[in-house]
């Protein structure tokens, strides 16, 4: 049985796609400059709204989507080696809670790989950390609609829809994973939370 794991778990190093060592200080400095320039130029709505407020009526009750990296490995294997290195860098940045910098890396990758579901899940997670629930929901929807149906992507979307206050979408995605051995029990708990919040 696949067990979901948080992206911030220390054991994530075993999921790295590259063994190349990087000069982190130089890399982070370059990306910090890039991030500022892209935001100022309005490069993409996801970047421009990254620090935007979440909906005032969102039912944020004990829900924070986990990232099951094992469920994301297959679509990431379709990237070029250099792109997989950037994914590794983005994951490291997220572990360091440098979410704005990770957003830059992931947005660059999505620009050239718009149908890669794993990249969209990763960016949705980052956007949630930055407070942009609307942007996270857009990416989670795009991920769920990309490629072969995945129970994990449905479960991730259900959680983001819950945080965004989109009750119909949350209910639909919960039904999609109701019988899944990995995500079904947690989905049932979310369903109960949703019903309690709707009363």
Record the SSE blueprint:
Blueprint: H1 24-41, H2 45-48, H3 73-76, H4 81-95, H5 99-112, H6 117-129, H7 133-144, H8 151-164, H9 167-176, H10 184-198
Helix pairs in contact: 1-5, 4-5, 5-6, 6-7, 7-8, 8-9, 9-10
Walkthrough of the structure:
This protein is mainly alpha-helical. The protein has one domain. Helix content is 60%, strand content 0%. Helix 5 (99-112) packs antiparallel against helix 6 and helix 7 (133-144) runs antiparallel to helix 8 (151-164). The model is unreliable at 1-30 and 32-61 (pLDDT under 50).
Brief summary:
It is built from ten helices and no strands.
Report the helical percentage.
55-70%
**What is the number of strand segments?**
0
Q: In this structure, how is the largest beta sheet organized?
A: none
**Kindly, what is the distance between the CA atoms of the first and last residues, rounded to a whole number of angstroms?**
34 Å
From the spread of the alpha carbons, the general shape counts as globular
Indicate the proportion of strand residues. Answer: under 5%
Tally of individual domains: 1
Number of helices: 10
Question: Which stretches of 5+ consecutive residues score pLDDT under 50?
Answer: 1-30, 32-61
Element pattern in H and E: HHHHHHHHHH
Which structural class matches the secondary elements?
mainly alpha
User: What integer is the average pLDDT?
Assistant: 77
Any idea what the radius of gyration is? 17 Å
